[in-house]
Amino acid sequence: MTPNPIPAIHHAVITVSDIEASLRFYRDGIGLAVLQDRDVEGDWPALFRAPSTRLRAVFLGNPDVPDRQAGVLELNAFESDAPEPRPQAFHAGLTMLSYFVDVDETLARLSSLGFTEPPRRIDQTTPGGILTIAVVRDPDGVAILLTPGSLTRPSASAD
Q1: Residue that finishes a domain, picked among 58, 83, 108
Q2: Is residue 59 part of a domain?
Q3: How far apart are CA 48 and CA 107, in angstroms?
Q4: What range does the domain containing 32 cover?
Q5: The pTM is what?
Q6: How many CB atoms lie within 10 A of CB 61?
Q7: CATH of the domain at 67
Q8: Under a CB-based contact definition with an 8 Å cutoff, are residues 22 and 139 in contact?
Q9: Sign of torsion, CA 96 97 100 105?
Q10: What is the pLDDT of residues 53-95, one digit of tens each?
Q11: Which residues have CB under 8 Å from 17's CB, separation 6+?
Q12: Which of the two residues, 152 and 7, has the higher pLDDT score?
């Protein structure tokens, strides 16, 4: 296997307090497919300072994208009591995740699933033109940016 010439993000992990609510948000609302759903035992307290050695790991993403380029989201639910969600105030550390989606369609789907907190929307100037982007919060307060196209490339598409 040839290594990537430039490191790439393989996946991000969110520890969730309610796995079913998070699946409704990411799978049913954002539109990610479940790639794998399994119970895993490991020394998570030593590796992550986690509260338990057992967790449910649900991997979500696009099954048509190769694993090395996938940008997979992993939801972890530990067998012990769920940790408290972080405050929603702006803070140092991971600030948000971003998904290429049809923004209006995704917001309507999230609303129909009961995620009714009003999104924050702006028109953003990008190399490909002006895009209307929105930020919503998942059930644990993680900020999710919804964008219809690239914020960094001349083309307004996700390629």
Answers
A1: 83
A2: yes
A3: 33
A4: 1-83
A5: 0.83
A6: 19
A7: 3.10.180.10
A8: yes
A9: negative
A10: 999 999 999 999 887 777 899 999 988 766 666 666 666 777 7
A11: 77, 82, 83, 84, 85, 139, 140
A12: 152
Q: Which of 36-40, 71-75, 124-128 has the highest mean pLDDT?
A: 36-40
The encoded tokens of residue 69 equal: 């380029």
Asked if residue 78 and residue 55 are part of one domain, the reply reads yes
With cut-offs at 50, 70 and 90, classify the pLDDT of residue 24.
very high
> What's 46's DSSP letter?
H
Which of 61, 83, 105 corresponds to the end of one domain?
Answer: 83
* Greatest alpha-carbon span in the chain: 48
- Token pair of 57 as six digits: 């790991």
Strand 54-61's sheet: what is its strand order? 11-15, 72-78, 54-61, 33-41
Give a yes or no: residue 89 inside a domain: no
Give me the phi and psi of 110, to 5 degrees please. Answer: -60, -45
Q: How many domains does the chain have?
A: 2
Nearest by Cα to 140 from 115, 122, 118, 120: 115
Report helix, strand and coil shares of the chain as percent, to nearest 5.
Answer: 20, 35, 45
Q: To which residue do tokens 């190399």 refer? A: 127
CA–CA separation, 42 and 112 (whole Å): 37
